Task: inverse folding
């Protein structure tokens, strides 16, 4: 192996292809590696993994991988919150940045075969779950019922609109959508995402089911309670944790909570594990 | 007999020999006051090398993990970027390294070179490092009030992980033992004479005595490892520890076993950026703060809890096969709030024992 190939901190050059506005401060960045071999290697990622994105001169940040490995394009969906994400938002198509990864354990989708999959996403929590949902739908025969519950603050905060429409059309998925506050043009559900579980006509399977929960900390806590009320055990609930990270490879120590390094032992944990780690979501 | 003798008067000849072989030799020196520090040996300062002096606060860890280390040099070139790793392939010998610090470097080896990802910067520095361990034998000059290597089982004489070990036999001679083939190779030099069984016997006698000459500091790890791993330490104990932490980060700065770092990009010229890593400390408030301001570990006692959990939980000891505390006593020496390792271990042991109620097994 060459000196460069074994350097775990070395970002590989990526080219930004196009940018799509999702919602306020959130954009999807389609990109590819300059080196086609790198691209082939990277595309072996698993749903739930992440990558370190480098903006030279600003720094690096961990980003979820919203595409499914069954799709052809690679992209990140990123909210502008700090200096690195702002630097990514400032890039134009054709600009270069760095990517290294994929890192982390990802969701063990093979272990979930012949189970019902219930996805509960709040706001930009849909970003990491998008990968699993698309993956599960691409391997539809391996899973039983697939339900997606998605809640956002308002109709203007709904992401991946084209994908949502696909799911609404019911291609093998039961899709439920809600917003905290509607607007003039909104005729759908209003209320927090957990309220959907009790709606007439919604029947959430509990036996042989895995529930995926991703969203802001407040939403997470309430949805966990709702799922427990339905009869879910803590080991049936999985999520991905977000932590400040510098290296992504288990060395820098920032994401270490309890007995786990979120970057290498996670970011996917069951709620049972999360409770044992003993720290806020 | 594998052990050799080296006259104390020839110690500088050994240092010169290492320098001739292309090593930059780092040795502890005495500062202007009572301070000591590691520095590069030069023709000008070589005569000031001393065998017996207090172990420097600033640990020799920086020769494998510099306080600030360049990782990448990044140039912008006509709309594209060129990224080059910056490696340090310098040959270095650490002379007069105490046994706690030998264990510290071994712990860092386990952490940085073990598991799935190997750190390439650490690996290169480590590969070029030659370790000359000096056994602590002088209770006044070598062993500080805070030393507790006898509790951490790392000293006063390291058992392995050095290239060469020297021990002062007190009569103008040093007993030399090789720990690696590289150390063994030095024994071909005429500097070294064969040792006898009597010399080795003298080593045992001296060590048996030195072990009794440690000051009052003890660290009762075994009970504390159990309480930390069980998670049965009362919150009030962590809060009491946290209340005494001034969040200065000093304990992590002087620790030979702390591994955390942050990474930063800094401009170094037109179109040129350096990516550097810098030691970081879990004691500091921003350590877990994410962009956007969310910080899952806000309270100071959560952060103190973190440091001692990471060092003492059974899970990590098993993962690295090494406790992340070498008993060097530096944290105890620098901590203004007296929550260095020995004090914390004692607080946990005392206060957990008071509430330790194991349920009796049902027949």
Result:
């Amino acid at each position: 192996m060459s000196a460069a190939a074994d350097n775990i901190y070395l970002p590989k050059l990526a080219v930004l292809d196009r940018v799509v506005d999702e919602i306020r401060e959130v954009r999807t960045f389609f990109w590819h590696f300059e080196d086609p071999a790198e691209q082939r290697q990277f595309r072996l990622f698993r749903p739930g993994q992440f990558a370190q994105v480098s903006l030279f001169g600003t720094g690096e940040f961990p980003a979820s991988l919203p595409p499914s490995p069954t799709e052809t394009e690679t992209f990140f969906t990123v909210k502008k919150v700090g200096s690195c994400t702002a630097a990514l938002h400032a890039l134009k198509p054709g600009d270069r940045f760095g990517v290294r990864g994929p890192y982390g354990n990802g969701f063990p989708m093979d272990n979930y075969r012949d189970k019902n999959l219930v996805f509960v996403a709040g706001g930009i929590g849909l970003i990491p779950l998008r990968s699993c949902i698309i993956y599960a739908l691409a391997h539809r025969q391996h899973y039983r019922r697939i339900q997606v519950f998605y809640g956002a603050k308002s109709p203007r905060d709904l992401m991946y609109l084209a994908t949502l429409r696909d799911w609404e059309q019911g291609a093998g998925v039961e899709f439920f959508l809600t917003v905290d506050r509607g607007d003039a043009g909104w005729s759908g559900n209003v209320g927090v995402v957990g309220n959907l579980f009790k709606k007439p006509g919604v029947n959430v399977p509990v036996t042989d089911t895995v529930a995926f929960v991703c969203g802001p900390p407040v939403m997470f806590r309430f949805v966990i309670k709702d799922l427990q009320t339905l009869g879910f055990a803590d080991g049936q609930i999985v999520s991905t944790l977000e932590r400040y990270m510098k290296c992504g490879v288990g060395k820098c120590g920032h994401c270490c909570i309890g007995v786990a390094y979120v970057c290498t032992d996670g970011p996917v944990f069951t709620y049972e594990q999360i409770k044992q780690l003993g720290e806020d979501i | 007999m594998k052990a050799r003798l080296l006259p104390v008067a020839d110690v500088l000849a050994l240092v010169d020999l290492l320098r001739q072989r292309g090593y930059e030799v780092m040795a502890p020196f005495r500062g202007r006051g009572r301070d000591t520090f590691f520095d590069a040996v030069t023709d000008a300062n070589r005569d000031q090398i001393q065998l017996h002096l207090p172990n420097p606060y600033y640990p020799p860890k920086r020769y494998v993990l510099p306080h600030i280390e360049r990782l990448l040099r990044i140039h912008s070139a006509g709309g594209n970027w060129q990224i080059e790793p910056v490696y340090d392939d310098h040959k270095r010998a650490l002379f007069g390294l105490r046994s706690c610090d030998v264990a510290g470097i071994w712990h860092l080896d386990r952490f940085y070179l073990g598991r799935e990802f190997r750190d390439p910067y650490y690996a290169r520095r480590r590969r070029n490092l030659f370790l000359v361990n000096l056994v602590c034998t002088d209770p006044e000059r070598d062993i500080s009030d805070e030393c507790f290597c006898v509790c951490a089982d790392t000293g006063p004489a390291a058992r392995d992980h050095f290239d060469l070990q020297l021990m002062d036999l007190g009569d103008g001679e040093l007993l030399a033992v090789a720990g690696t083939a590289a150390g063994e190779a030095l024994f071909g030099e005429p500097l070294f004479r064969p040792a006898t069984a009597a010399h080795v016997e003298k080593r045992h006698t001296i060590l048996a005595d030195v072990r009794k000459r440690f000051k009052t500091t003890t660290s009762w790890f075994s009970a504390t490892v159990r309480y930390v791993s069980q998670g049965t330490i009362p919150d009030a104990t962590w809060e009491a520890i946290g209340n005494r932490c001034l969040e200065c980060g000093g304990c992590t700065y002087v620790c030979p076993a702390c591994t955390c770092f942050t990474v930063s990009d800094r401009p170094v010229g037109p179109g040129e950026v350096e990516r550097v890593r810098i030691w970081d400390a879990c004691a500091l408030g921003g350590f877990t703060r994410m962009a956007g301001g969310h910080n899952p570990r806000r309270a100071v006692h959560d952060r103190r809890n973190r440091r001692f959990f990471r060092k003492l939980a059974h899970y990590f000891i098993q993962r690295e096969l090494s406790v992340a505390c070498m008993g060097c006593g530096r944290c105890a020496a620098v901590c203004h709030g007296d929550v260095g390792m020995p004090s914390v271990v004692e607080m946990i042991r005392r206060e957990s024992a008071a509430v330790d109620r194991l349920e009796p097994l049902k027949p």
In short: Chain A has two domains: 12-103, 109-240.
